[in-house]
Design a protein that fits this description.
- By secondary structure, this protein is an alpha/beta fold.
- It has 2 domains: 30 residues; 106 residues, 3-Layer(aba) Sandwich (Glutaredoxin).
- The chain contains 6 helices and 5 strands; from the N terminus they run H-H-E-H-E-H-E-H-E-E-H.
- Strands 1-3-2-4-5 form a 5-stranded mixed beta sheet.
- Helix 4 links the parallel strand 2 and strand 3.
- The longest helix is centred in the middle third of the chain and has 16 residues.
- It is globular.
- About 6% of the residues have low confidence.
Amino acid sequence: MSLKTIGKQIESLSYIQYFCIFTTIIKLNKMALELTDANFEELVLKSDKPVLVDFWAEWCGPCRMVGPVVEELSKEYDGKVVIGKVDVDNNPNISSQFGIRNIPTLLFFKNGEIVDKQVGAVPKSTLAAKLDAQLKN
């Protein structure tokens, strides 16, 4: 199918059809939040839901293994848990505030307090069990 054909099909969509497709794409592409020094307090410490924060860096091999797992969890726990990622290279203040010395480090927050911690790459089931425990408490 050519781009011209696709363009004509898109032009023929009604506003409602376009809106439905657009919102579906957004839901399918739901990703972990990008947390920064600037938004960390608002999105994590003031959250009324449990929060999982992945401290990572692009150059970190184990972080690249954990990253897709964190993204999957953000889709599976959407609406129940806030899941975000902090790039330690671009956000040194928040990383040092929580004493992040090894990555990946995953911190679990509830009511603005750290309630659990995981350092290093682990299976998805380990992180899911920790999230489930926070949802039960």
